[in-house]
Write a structure and sequence with these properties.
about 230 residues; Rhomboid-like fold; hydrolase; transmembrane
């Protein structure tokens, strides 16, 4: 019978954790999709965006294509869009993935992105796509960690690093009508709530009741946003 040396297995796990990165994986996915979309007719072409899974309310409402709450996270509209989001994902993604771990990072990134797209679905009828919903989710997670666990130096420093950027981007979002600010705000709230629910490894201060409250709040808000979008 084949047996695995437990020490060797532990070393393999450690090497995997040190070398693997969801941040780099997401960067690769969105770059590959951008290239394919460009070859298919251009990432600024509305039909191409819809074909590749951008948030498009009529298809969500009438054809029940709910995967469109997830797929827009990896799509981008134009070269400037993907370059800006990729640089920012590289910066904040590596930091957050290092601080909270691979799997918590994955949960925060995807669930906050979904929340952002739900908010966009509820309040905007425009076609939308971009990683910014998930990126704002990471910033929402930073806000939570820096406020509730500011006694940890790295969390406090990240809070100071990104606080101004959050405010600037939200203000610019209201000024520029091309920006899906509803998606940004939804992602920000989603990231905050998800981080409250899952916290970070070794957190002994967050009570189970607070974690449950974060989970419940996330799903209640998500349901309300979905309901509002369907009513539109």
């Amino acid at each position: 019978m084949f047996k695995i040396n437990p020490w060797k297995l532990e070393r393999m796990k450690r090497n995997f954790n040190e070398s693997f990165s969801f941040t780099y994986l997401f960067l690769a996915i969105q770059a590959a999709l951008f290239i394919v979309m460009t070859l298919a007719g251009g990432s600024t072409n509305g039909q191409v965006l819809v074909n590749f899974g951008a948030k498009f309310n009529p298809y969500i409402i009438y054809q029940h294509e709910y995967y469109r709450f997830l797929t827009p996270i990896f799509l981008h509209i134009g070269l400037e869009h993907i370059l800006f989001n990729s640089v920012f994902l590289y910066m904040i993604g590596r930091q957050m993935e290092y601080e909270i771990g691979h799997w918590r990072f994955l949960v925060v990134y995807l669930l906050s992105g979904i929340m952002g797209n739900l908010a966009s679905f509820a309040f905007s009828s425009s076609i939308s796509a971009g990683a910014s919903t998930a990126l704002f989710g990471l910033m929402g997670a930073v806000v939570y960690l820096s406020r509730k666990h500011g006694y940890i130096r790295s969390f406090r420093q990240m809070g100071m690093q990104y606080a101004g950027l959050i405010v600037i981007n939200i203000v610019l979002g209201f000024i520029n009508s091309a920006v899906d600010n509803y998606g940004h705000l939804g992602g920000l709230v989603g990231g905050y709530l998800v981080m409250l629910a899952i916290s970070f490894r070794g957190d002994r201060l967050t009570k189970p009741a607070s974690r449950i409250a974060g989970i419940v709040a996330y799903f209640v808000i998500a349901f309300l946003l979905f309901w509002l979008g369907m009513k539109r």
